[in-house]
Amino acid sequence: MAILVKKTRLYNLIRQWRNIMKSIIIDRWPIPNYIALRTLWYENSTISLITTELSCYDEIVPFLISEGDEFALVVLSDLVEKKNFPSKFLEKVFYTGDLGCQLSVCYSEKVPESLRAECSRLKLSKH
Which DSSP symbol is given to 27? Predict the structure, then answer.
């Protein structure tokens, strides 16, 4: 009986953890069910975002910038941190994105020379 109670408690803890630790995975373009994922993002304060290296940045970056909502900008700031993110988009992301996008650009290994002064000021400010 004691083993059954322990297993039931463990099972309940695992089930609660799975409910708490949901993730949105962005691993292809076009993003399947983008509207549903965005809604899920807004409705769950504990959800995490996982993005993978993509090869279609010429399409996805303009789409996310045009969407311009919090979810799109979170995805964008996460993509900026990927090694294969094209440097040609960094200035556009910096000037059209939110603070998270700006910080992602500033901490990128490929930060353009034209943004170095802006990034220095941003890093020194209390954000």
Answer: -
Which SS3 state, helix, strand or coil, does residue 50 take?
strand
CA distance 101 to 8: 44
Segment 6-44, tens digit of pLDDT? 567 776 666 665 555 688 999 999 999 999 999 999 998
Rounded alpha-carbon distances, angstroms, from residue 42 to 15, 37, 38, 76:
22, 9, 6, 16
The residues, any chain, with a CB within 8 Å of residue 49's CB and separated by 6 or more, are: 23, 24, 26, 41, 74, 75, 78
Q: pTM, whole model, 2 decimals?
A: 0.80
Q: Which structural domain, as residue segments, surrounds residue 40?
A: 2-124
Domain count, the chain: 1
| DSSP-H helix ranges across 21-56 | 34-43
Residue with tokens 């000021």: 121
